[in-house]
Amino acid sequence: MAPHCAGAALDLTLIDADGVELDMGGAVNGHRTGDEEYCPLNAPGLSDRARRNRDLLARTMGDAGFTNYPTEWWHWSYGDRYWALITKADSAIYGPA
To answer: Which of 33, 68, 73 has its CA nearest to residue 53?
Structure first.
């Protein structure tokens, strides 16, 4: 089962208290908008602000037990096959029954 459909992965960004999206250095799903070079979480050439915002996202999601799919800064998993591989879990939580 696909991670998103199983509820094991989500795509997200950060916003401020007014609901304004923070500078993440590239769009969510940037590979569809021409921002391919800025899709990786650790993409080179990001502004200091975008780097700090990505670092905040990574720390927060990592502290909550999520893993990042490194070619997409916005993609975070918990309980899917990729998460199990990275965390060395015995198995995925979500998948085919």
So the answer is: 73
Q: In what order do the strands lie in the sheet with 9-11?
A: 9-11, 75-77, 67-68
Q: How far is CA 88 from CA 24, 74, 81, 85, in A?
A: 29, 22, 10, 5
d(CA 45, CA 53): 14
Q: Following DSSP, what letter does each residue of the chain receive, concatenated?
A: --HHHHTSEEE---B-TTSPBP--SS-TTGGGTT-GGG-STT-TT--HHHHHHHHHHHHHHHHTT-EE-TT-TTEEESSSHHHHHHHT-SS-SSS--
In this prediction, residue 9 has a pLDDT band, given cuts at 50, 70 and 90, of confident
Only one residue has tokens 């569809």, namely: 32
Residue tagged 């905040």 (tokens): 56
Whether this model's pTM surpasses 0.85 = yes
Q: Tokens in use for 13? A: 């960004």
